[in-house]
Amino acid sequence: MDINSDDLKIFVTVIDSGTLSAASVHLGQTTSGVSRALSRLEDKLSTSLLTRTTRRMELTEEGQLFLQQARQILAAMEEAEETIRIRRQKPAGRLSIDAASPFMLHCVVPHVAEFREMYPDIRLELSSNDQIADLIEHRTDVAIRIGTLSDSTLHARALSSSPLHVLASPEYLARNGRPVAPEDLAAHTLLGFAQYEQGNTWPLHHQTGNSLQISPVLTASSGETLRQLALAGQGIVCLADFMTRADIAAGRLVRVLEDSYTGFRQPIHAVYYRNTQLAQRISCFLEFLQQKL
Q1: pLDDT in tens, 156-206
Q2: Helix, coil or strand: residue 245
Q3: Same-domain check for residues 141 and 233
Q4: Do 204 and 287 fall within a single domain?
């Protein structure tokens, strides 16, 4: 039996991608080539790792055990490669960064060219998840998370914080009037988050407290979608400064209820699983991003 790292990478990529065709795109191979590689791996192991039908694939019990070991082996190989690079004092290698799409678009993408010029040997992989993702399952080195962290198994590094603004377009306010107190929002079209209730609690002083739980008429899973809806005059929204600062400066969005704002700032953290010293390429990215924020 002669299993190599390519066998493991193909197997793990197929599982993470969900289909042979998706894995082939990620690996830069043909679908038939990936399928043959899987079959050869199963021959080497003398067991079936996957049950494949025309519609889906499922791991066998042996496949589940092998997947766990394969992930550990690949992680150990990457760790060994990383150790050598650290000794050479040259940040290099794959760096996978995950962030919600608004943060990725407004706070990471604009600075990628400068980062790549500074660290040409780091291979960036950027992904956007508007929901909390499993870092290990997605092979993510660092995830940027906005708001209060709830997962105590993650190690976190505070990067910055961002104020929130209650906003509407001038066109919406011209049609519907401007709210002067939080209680007036009941008569307006409110835009809010789907599957993220924390985002539907607005930091506004009102008659019964310092936070207002809204009932949105129109919801979206992404803050960037809500921003676009607000720009299109579809309602009032509460979004972070980092993604709306340019819109406010240009007059595309207008702050409302400023006198009722509590001053709350959303924390911005980098989260990761390592509890030892961060890899050099991770450290340099976080220091770079913190300066930009």
Answers
A1: 888 999 999 999 999 999 999 999 999 999 999 999 999 888 889 999 998
A2: helix
A3: no
A4: no
